[in-house]
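pipeline/complex-builder :: batch 7 item 3
reading input block
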Amino acid sequence: MAHQLFLVLGTSASLLLLPADSQAGVAQAEKGLLINVTARTFRQGEAVSVRVRCTCPGPLEQVRGEVFGQPLQFTVRDQEWWGLAGIDLSTKAGTYSMSVEAQGPGQLALRGTRSIRVAARTFPVRRLRVASQFVEPSEEDQLRIVREAERIAGIFQAPSMRTWDGNFVRPLMGPVTSNFGARTVFNGQSRAPHAGIDFTDEVGTPAASPSAGRIVLAEDLFFTGGTIIIDHGQGLYSLFAHLSGFVAHEGEEVAQGAVVGFVGATGRVTGPHLHWAIRLNGARVDPLSMIEIARNR
Ligand SMILES: [Zn+2]
């Protein structure tokens, strides 16, 4: 069940800036932005859906915004503008301001702000035993780790057009372990929290693209083993890890449901599974929260 906050902006002049050069009267103050913000829950590690409409007589021509230090990018369908924001799993609990700027008919400049209260969340701790090379890597491997981390960070920052249609599905039907955000201890040593979810399945089980996108990485990496990153556009990426093999190649466009690789046990693992992570404007969010948002769109 999606938690929904609904607010009409523009009923209060303080929340709405009308054309800077106009004498904003009562009639114009009624033309405002309707901003509808939904999420599975407003907690750390959740994707947030932002829908914007205008009460003005014509369609909005441009919409953009900002929240959690991330740009909000929108696409339009049936005069409704839709964008996504990510509450990173390490975002501090508290109240954040979201701003939306839009251009209405006749160069009408509109602006609205919203408060989003992010609740704290307690993540479980998981303790795993893996091959010692993944906990105490050699000097050579340490250099490789840094190189790969920089490369992936660069990929997640590259701007791109949206290619997906707003629909998101699971990459495979097997059982999912929802251990998103778990504090992880490998061989007694604390490491970065688990920023994805795991599907336990047999080696060789096909893994499909959750939505349309472009393959921007398909290779073996130190920690994530056989890795595929799919760019869905506008700051949204899927990452598959521990694959035993690939079907898709870098640069290839893939449709939703297209098999891109196969479940494996490569990299830092305790057994065969598919690790699926999502980056949304740089934020690490639970893939299941993305599926939920898409379903309730
Ligand atoms: Zn995982």
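note: The domain at 3-118 is CATH 2.60.40.10 (Immunoglobulin-like).
queue -> next item
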